[in-house]
Design brief:
The chain is mainly alpha-helical and 76 residues long. It has one domain: Winged helix-like DNA-binding domain superfamily/Winged helix DNA-binding domain (Arc Repressor Mutant, subunit A, Orthogonal Bundle). Helix content is 58%, strand content 11%. Strand 1 and strand 2 form a beta hairpin. Helix 1 crosses helix 3. It is globular, with a radius of gyration of 11 Å. It starts with a helix and ends with a helix.
Length: 76
C-alpha cells in the first residue's frame, strides 16, 4: 500500500460513520508516523487527484471519490 493509500484509509478510519466530517491533517499523518513535510506532500497529491478537500480551512475531508477509494482499499 502506498503512503497516499495509507493516508486515505487512516482518514477514512477516523471519520467512519461521518465521512463529511473534517479531520486535522497532522493528526492523520502523526498516526501513520509521517512528518509534517510528508503529510503536506501527500495532501497536495490527494487534493490534486480530488480525493480530499480542505474543510473548515484547517481540516481535511474525503471527497466522494476519496471515500469510494478508501472503502475499496479498506475492504479489499
Amino acid at each position: 500500500m502506498t503512503k497516499d493509500e495509507k493516508y486515505l484509509t487512516e482518514l477514512y478510519r477516523l471519520v467512519e460513520g461521518s465521512p463529511e466530517r473534517g479531520v486535522d491533517p497532522a493528526c492523520v499523518g502523526s498516526n501513520l508516523g509521517y512528518s509534517d513535510r510528508q503529510t503536506k506532500n501527500i495532501l497536495k497529491g490527494l487534493m490534486k487527484a480530488n480525493f480530499v478537500v480542505y474543510h473548515n480551512s484547517d481540516e481535511v475531508a474525503l471527497t466522494s471519490r476519496g471515500l469510494s477509494l478508501a472503502q475499496s482499499l479498506t475492504y479489499a
